[in-house]
Amino acid sequence: MHVKYRARFFRLVDLFLSSTHLPDQLVASFIRRMSRLSLTSPPHGIVNLIRRHPSCMVLIHRPSDSISSTSDESDPYDFDEPDPIKSNAIDSSLWEMKLFETETKRNKSKKESEEACSGFRKAQTRLSSG
């Protein structure tokens, strides 16, 4: 995504998905799509969506052994499904975030990776505690 419009895009995503009356499947689908896109660019906005829609916490807390932790082979989420409700996102997990954490550790210096991973862990802790 072009750097000039990234902040505006994520602000608008946050605004449009702020209603708590949206179906969980729809929000989970957006979270999963953003998570999948984070494999090629930094993850943004995912934490805010999960915080606003606590029923999507299952995406974080689903055991990684029930869903492949390194690929999407056994992931029930269908990235190519045009209808977000039918994408099975709510039955999936955010395995991309674990992969992002692993890659961050591998590619950055020890201090930088610790800061990035602790930021992700803090976000998970904040989301878990309410």
From TrEMBL:
<feature type="region of interest" description="Disordered">
    <location>
        <begin position="63"/>
        <end position="89"/>
    </location>
</feature>
<comment type="similarity">
    <text>Belongs to the CBF/MAK21 family.</text>
</comment>
<protein>
    <recommendedName>
        <fullName>CCAAT-binding factor domain-containing protein</fullName>
    </recommendedName>
</protein>
<feature type="compositionally biased region" description="Basic and acidic residues">
    <location>
        <begin position="103"/>
        <end position="114"/>
    </location>
</feature>
<dbReference type="InterPro" id="IPR005612">
    <property type="entry name" value="CCAAT-binding_factor"/>
</dbReference>
<dbReference type="InterPro" id="IPR027193">
    <property type="entry name" value="Noc4"/>
</dbReference>
<dbReference type="GO" id="GO:0032040">
    <property type="term" value="C:small-subunit processome"/>
</dbReference>
<feature type="compositionally biased region" description="Acidic residues">
    <location>
        <begin position="72"/>
        <end position="82"/>
    </location>
</feature>
<feature type="domain" description="CCAAT-binding factor">
    <location>
        <begin position="1"/>
        <end position="101"/>
    </location>
</feature>
<dbReference type="GO" id="GO:0042254">
    <property type="term" value="P:ribosome biogenesis"/>
</dbReference>
<dbReference type="GO" id="GO:0030692">
    <property type="term" value="C:Noc4p-Nop14p complex"/>
</dbReference>
<dbReference type="Pfam" id="PF03914">
    <property type="entry name" value="CBF"/>
</dbReference>
<feature type="region of interest" description="Disordered">
    <location>
        <begin position="103"/>
        <end position="130"/>
    </location>
</feature>
